Structures are given as structure tokens and as C-alpha cells.
């Protein structure tokens, strides 16, 4: 009976709210960062295996892996910087939420205008 209950549930549930697409410059920087990082990881594995095997190529490959690590770090920072620059140039729409209250000055001004418009109703 428990097996039947498990099989009736869906394995995949669609999320109704789709994520917005990243801007083109940010997406380009992110793809570049992923590719550089993957090459760096491969270089790190090769450097490790060459070191374990005692190959003469261990030192050059290790130096290349270290340099590649610096480049990969910069590429990841580039994604963050590109994202921030894009937000500053194109602006982020900032709207107050529905729970935000109006400024007190505006509220006082409305109360005064309402009181002034009422003719001696007291």
C-alpha cells in the first residue's frame, strides 16, 4: 500500500515561476568563467598525476595550474563585476512593496488639505 502511494506522487513538479534570463554580457562572462574553471580543474588533476608519477613534466604543469587558478579566480570575479555594472547602467526597477507605508509628511499634508476643504462641519 505504501508503494502505491509513492508511485502516485509525481517525481517532477514544474515550477510555475520561471527564472528570468541573465543579460547577455553577464551570461557571456559566466560561460567564459565556467570554461576557464573546468580547464583549471583538468590542469590540477594532470599536475597531481604527473607529480605522483614522478614525471619531468610535473613542474611545468603545476606552474601552469597555479597561473590558471589565478585566471579562473579573476574570471569568476569578472562575472560578479559585469553583473554589477549591468545593473548600474540599466537600472533595477525599485518599487516599494505593498506593505510599505506612505511617508508621514505626505500623510500630514493630506490630512491638512482634507481639514481645510471641510467647511465648519463641527
Report on the architecture of this protein.
Residues 91-122 are annotated as: Disordered. Keywords: Membrane, Transmembrane, Transmembrane helix. The chain crosses the membrane at residues 29-56, 62-81. The chain is mostly helical and 122 residues long. The chain has a domain at 21-91. The protein is built from four helices and no strands. The model has no long low-confidence stretch (mean pLDDT 81).
Which features does this protein show?
about 120 residues; mainly alpha; about 70% helix; about 0% strand; elongated; transmembrane
In short:
The protein has 122 residues and is mainly alpha-helical. The protein has helices at 2-8, 24-53, 58-90, 104-117. It has a domain at 21-91.
Tally of strands? 0
N-to-C SSE series? HHHH
Rounded to an integer in angstroms, the radius of gyration calculated over CA atoms is 30 Å
Number of helices: 4
Helix content: 55-70%
The chain-level structural class is: mainly alpha
In one word, what is the shape? elongated
Largest sheet: none
Regions with little confidence, pLDDT below 50 for 5+ residues: none
Strand content: under 5%
Distance between the termini: 74 Å
Overall pLDDT level? 81
